[in-house]
Fold this sequence. Notes:
The complex is a heterodimer. By secondary structure, chain A is α/β, with parallel strands linked by helices. Chain A is built from 21 helices and 13 strands. The N terminus of chain A is likely disordered. By secondary structure, chain B is mostly helical. Chains A and B meet through helix 2, helix 3, helix 6, helix 8 and strand 13 of A and helix 1, helix 2, helix 4, strand 1 and helix 5 of B.
Amino acid sequence: MATENTNNYKQVIDAFTREELQLISQAKRFLEYYQGDMEFRTAVNAGRITSKQQRRLQQIGIHFQPQEMALLWKKPELLQDYIKQSHAASPSDIPAEDREQIKKYPLLELWLRFLLRKKEQFKKVCEEHRPVSQNARFQSWHKRRVSAAESELGAYNHYIDHPFLGLELCDGCSVQCWFCAFSAKKLQNVLDYNQNRFFFRDIVQDCVDIFGSKATGHALLYYATEPFDNPHYIDYMRDFENITGCTVCTSTAVCTNKVWIDDLLAFYRPKNQPWPRLSVLSTKMLHKIHDQHTPDELRDCSLLMQMKDSEREKVSGGKILDKKNDMRQRDSTNYMQEVIPQGSIACVTGFYVNLVRKDIKLVSPCYTSDKWPYGYRVFDEAQFESAADFKQVLLEMIEHNMPEAPPAYMPFQLRDDLIFKPLDNGFDLVSPNQIHHFQNKSVFQALRDLLASSTVSFQEASDVLVDTYGQSLFEVHAALKHMFDAGFLDEVSLPVAWHQEAGA
Amino acid sequence: MSVESLKAFAKKVVEDEELKKKAKAVGMENADGLVALAKENGFDVSKQDFEEVSKEAQSSGELNEDDLEQVAGGVVAAGVAAAAGVVAAGAAVTQTTTSSGW
């Protein structure tokens, strides 16, 4: 199949001239140096960049004068407001005074324009260009999980694009990052390309048969693994692209292996894709990256500062959760205290498959907690033996976990992150990041009493509300369906209930 | 045709066991069938009326988009961090694996 690039990122870079892009790549590098080197950060914040640091800037390809970015340390609050307002309002709503101030710093203004365009385009991609699976059951399940993530993670969900598949090509990870939210175990084995190329291709083809090409292409070839660990990672990416027509992204923490990074850049740059993303684990590593690659070479790659003194917040999951108390101790007497900002490192909403161990998990991102320490909820798990078996197992998981409509036997219970708050006029459901009101309708008052008093099946809930509470059949159906469609109901226990029902 | 007619039909369904059985047999997802059943019983309702009832039976969220952004953005306050693209802690903690969908 011919390679089909959506080139959404190209729409970002096409808005700038070659000269502007060169300046943008230098501004980007300046900010990476700021973010990743505490000494430089301190100097910039104080507006006192040393001559040694000035030389370093030249050495790593930054040829503008730091004064061109001086607003960063002169009026940081202005920039903060400008970016916040740019997200919330239209550019014309930004106070003219702020715009005038920024105009005095053309390089900074150019950078902000690039940054905002990139964010805007990514938002658009998430909102408008999410592929649709040809499997209707999976598609409606995915939609419910995205709604549940919006409810559970609030604004953090806006940065998750919910790929359908995560296919791991290794068992374990050689890097062992200190913050790993997935607590990846040490590298055990890799999927040998010479022996497994056709197995891999058959697995991808199985997914295409079930979900369609574009939906399958909305995938990752790593999850709790390091791409570099599989020496044929790029060959696998090519095979994947050949079958689906889609290019997958890559994040790597092996950033100082020049051959590896050059190979990834050679793969992505001609396709105008913003990858690889580099996880920078130390300041020393950052300096080496800057020494090995020009600003232009890394123009489209995000460098994620993962050093311990970085300003980037880490999700309190996996290895960090082992060392910290659970953030989930929510005070049930105070609504706003219950809203604890915290995201998830997870992104796959669908099938998380390890091709070495031959196991499959059905997962979706959630609030990181003792119960779900890796920031994803596991709905079902299975093993498979071969590509043919894989397809069968996947279809069975869809059958057991993804009903088109709420089945009669489904336990009528709330998602496990929700706190139920009975009120005089109905009830509220409080997630870690959001509050949902079910108020001022008699059906909500009846539902409140039902939720407070007993555990029933979906069908029993409907019958009790109509027959015992005398509610309108249509309103009851609409309210219960809304609770299902919006992802408020627990679906983790669905396969158990399915088996019980099938055995009954 | 009105939501009021549908409400009157719903009341009759609650009171009349036979009609309730018929409505359940038609199925709640079958809007055309329910409209026909309502008409058979003298209630002039439309599919739009059912859609209206569905909308009314939905919850509302307390935190709007801006509020949500504020919650997520309230952690990193430095201007340089903002300019570097880490304005929201939400973005900061999730960008590692999340922006794969370009």
